[in-house]
TrEMBL record:
CDD domains: CE4_DAC2. This is Divergent polysaccharide deacetylase family protein. It comes from the Bacteria. Coiled coil: none annotated. Pfam families: Polysacc_deac_2. Transmembrane segments: none annotated.
């Protein structure tokens, strides 16, 4: 038995069992490899079983569902459709929804539709020329004429009436507009009117006057608003005549504007025209509406001097959509300071009764001196002197 156990080393009772010697780096490597193998096995065992998919069967099911949906009746449309989305900066509200008491403007100009309603409200005073540029001609408001540039609406809708207005000192209180005509005929009288009358007085230049462009620039730099006096056919024409290039009732009714264009081209930077004589034309039921329509097309004011009781100018302007103003009192029918002052006092009473009044005069020396003194006194009594455009009826003002 001893020989049997000795080769196995079992016959030595004091010999201990030992692990074989292993290097430390090999041991770390063996542990890392074992960790990787164990993790891979765990992931493989935990992986879900993939579902077997029949692609052709699923496609057939989708096609069958689509055919069934097409066979069903369509649901009724809602009674009110949702409004389409508007581009940024545009309004979906129609123009009619704007407040009718507020002025409106289309911007950008000369466009329509939603884009043309980008800006719903504006201040009409913003169209006026800056005071420092009041003697500059706005080329957008002119078109070529044989005698000179003719006034016309700009492509963006602005009118000479809008741009060449003089701004009133106040829109409140008892307001009076005074128009002094006949300028350009007498150089001395013109100089007195431009230099001595307050800026709020409106100056009217005769189409047959001299040096009109020079006087226009000086008057505008002084702050005055301007009108052009238009020679129009009076009763008794041609024995009674306002001069060359008179616009006759026959030509106006036939819309022959050669003489009108001659007068309009003699001056620039004016808000409108006033009649010089013209009782025959203003009382003609065909001529006056035609003239009012032409003035409205050009964006000009028409001031009736009030000397003819038969004038149809107010109704004609209203029908044509033209800007209109009518004088209440002729101030200097008599060239006497006392008479002029009495007429001015009557003008003040008219203004206090109705809140406003318009008086017209000519550039005589006595008229200019009396007007200047009376205006200073009237302003001390609370009367506000304003340009004639401030008292005009403008159908385009909203």
């Amino acid at each position: 038995m001893d020989d049997l156990y000795r080769p196995l080393g079992l016959d030595s009772p004091h010999r201990a069992w030992r692990l074989p010697a292993v290097r430390l780096d090999r041991l770390v490597l063996m542990l890392a490899v074992g960790g990787i193998l164990g993790g891979s096995a765990a992931i493989s065992l935990d992986r879900p079983v993939l579902r077997q998919v029949d692609v052709f069967a699923e496609q057939a099911e989708r096609e069958a569902a689509a055919e069934m949906a097409a066979a069903l009746p369509s649901p009724p449309e809602p009674a009110v459709k949702a409004a389409p989305l508007q581009p940024l900066g545009r309004s979906s509200a129609p123009e009619d929804s704007a407040d009718p008491n507020l002025p409106t403007v289309s911007y950008p100009p000369n466009l329509s539709g939603d884009y043309g309603r980008l800006v719903p409200v504006r201040d009409p005073g913003s169209l006026r020329q800056a005071p420092g540029e009041a003697d500059k001609v706005d080329e957008a408001l002119t078109e070529p004429g044989e005698e000179g540039p003719l006034p016309v609406r700009a492509a963006d809708g602005r009118r000479p009436f809008d741009v060449y207005q003089a701004e009133p000192a106040s829109d409140r209180g008892t307001r009076i507009a005074i128009v002094v005509g006949g300028l350009g005929i007498s150089q001395t009288g013109t100089m007195r009117a431009v230099e001595q009358l307050p800026p709020a007085v409106t100056l009217a230049f005769a189409a047959a006057g001299n040096s009109l462009d020079r006087w226009m620039r000086q008057a505008r730099r002084s702050g005055h608003e301007l009108l052009l006096q238009l020679p129009m056919e009076p009763t008794g024409y041609p024995d009674v005549s306002p001069g060359a290039h008179t616009l006759t009732a026959k030509d106006a009714a036939g819309r022959r504007w050669r003489d009108l264009d001659w007068s309009l081209g003699r001056l620039t930077n004016y808000v409108g025209v006033m009649n010089y004589m013209g009782a025959r034309l203003t009382g003609d039921a065909e001529a006056m509406p035609a003239l009012a329509t032409e003035l409205a097309r050009r964006g000009l004011l028409y001031l009736d001097d009030g000397t003819s009781a038969r004038s149809l100018a107010r109704d004609a302007a209203k029908q044509a959509g033209a800007v209109y103003a009518g004088a209440d009192i002729l101030l200097d029918a008599q060239q006497d300071p006392d008479s002029i002052r009495r007429r001015l006092d009557a003008l003040e009473r008219t203004a206090r009764a109705g809140g406003r009044a318009i008086g017209v005069a000519s550039a005589f020396e006595s008229s200019i001196a009396t007007l200047g003194a009376w205006i200073r006194e009237a302003e001390g009594r609370g009367i506000v002197i304003v340009p004639v455009s401030a008292l005009a009826d403008d159908p385009e003002a909203r």
